[in-house]
Structure formats: structure tokens, C-alpha cells
Backbone:
């Protein structure tokens, strides 16, 4: 099977941090998780996809530390990218906020014709019981099937437009 290199078929994966990308501490005596290479790289290596892709890092932050300036930089990175399909891995606490920011930004600039899907994980990809593989897989399907110009959130087997995405803060489930 040949892999298309047309940028309309290529998917851009953008790392922003969050639980999906957290890794065990590399320093001795470290107790907090650290950010390392994008979890997407390991997941795609296992998948061996038949589509072309690029992986980029916008920033590596816990989502509670993401600012509107970070969101603006993310929007700029996406806008400048040649790919029309984009998956953003993001922390779950403010993922919906970032999706809504990108939804508003898409009307103002080069994001108009981009299909953007945000996803993440409740447990780091490094954990054997992580939800990262399922969530990334759902994002890959969604970004290929959604109409151009869509901004979606996909978590827990649910895909919703940014403006309709909600989260039950008691259970942590996205709806």
C-alpha cells in the first residue's frame, strides 16, 4: 500500500502537553511526572499507519497552565501548517476551552479550511491501562471524516463539535 504525501491527506499531530504526554521522572528523587517526546510518536509507531503524518510540539504544559497566549501560538502554528487535517493532543482540564478558542479563531484566519480534532488521556500513554490509544484512534478517524473547517473534541468514545462538547466534572467523562 502506498502512502500519500499530498498535504491534503497528511495529518499534522500537535503536542501541547497534558496527561497523555506525561512520562516518569528522569531525575533521581523526582516525584513529579515530566513531559518527554510526544506520546503520538510511540502510538503511531505501534499503529504503523497507511497515511502520511507530521508531529510537531507547540508547547509542553499541564492544561491548567495553558494561557490564551499559548492558544494563540497554537492557532498560529496550525494556520501556518500546510496540512489541512490536524490532531492536537491536550490536557483534559482545559481541552474544551482550547477547542472553543480554535473554533472562534478559525473564522478569522487561515484555520477556515482546517479540520482540527483535540484529544488527550486521563492516564499517561506510558501506563498500560491508558485510554490514550483509543482516544488517539478516535481522533484519527474523526479528522478524516469530519467536514473541512470542523473543530472537534474526542474523548471516551465521544466525538463532539467544540461548541457542543461538555464534561461532567464529578465523573471526568466527556459528553
Residues:
Amino acid at each position: 500500500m502506498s502512502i500519500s504525501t499530498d498535504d491534503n491527506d497528511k495529518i499534522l499531530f500537535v503536542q501541547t502537553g497534558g496527561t497523555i504526554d506525561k512520562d516518569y521522572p528522569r531525575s533521581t528523587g523526582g516525584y513529579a511526572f515530566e513531559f518527554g517526546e510526544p506520546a503520538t510518536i510511540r502510538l503511531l509507531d505501534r499503529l504503523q499507519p497507511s497515511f502520511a503524518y507530521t508531529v510537531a510540539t507547540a508547547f509542553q504544559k499541564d492544561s491548567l497552565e495553558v494561557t490564551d497566549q499559548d492558544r494563540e501560538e497554537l492557532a498560529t502554528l496550525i494556520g501556518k501548517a500546510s496540512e489541512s487535517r490536524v490532531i492536537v493532543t491536550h490536557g483534559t482540564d482545559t481541552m474544551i476551552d482550547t477547542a472553543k478558542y480554535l473554533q472562534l479563531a478559525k473564522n478569522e484566519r487561515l484555520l477556515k479550511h482546517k479540520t482540527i480534532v483535540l484529544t488527550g488521556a486521563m492516564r499517561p500513554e506510558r501506563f498500560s491501562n491508558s485510554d490514550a490509544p483509543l482516544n488517539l484512534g478516535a481522533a484519527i478517524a474523526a479528522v478524516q471524516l469530519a467536514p473541512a473547517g470542523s473543530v472537534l473534541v474526542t474523548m471516551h468514545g465521544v466525538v463532539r463539535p467544540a461548541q457542543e462538547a461538555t464534561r461532567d466534572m464529578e465523573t471526568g467523562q466527556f459528553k
User: Anything to note?
Assistant: Helices lie at 39-47, 68-80, 95-106, 132-145. The first helix runs from residue 39 to 47. The radius of gyration is 15 Å. The mean pLDDT is 89.
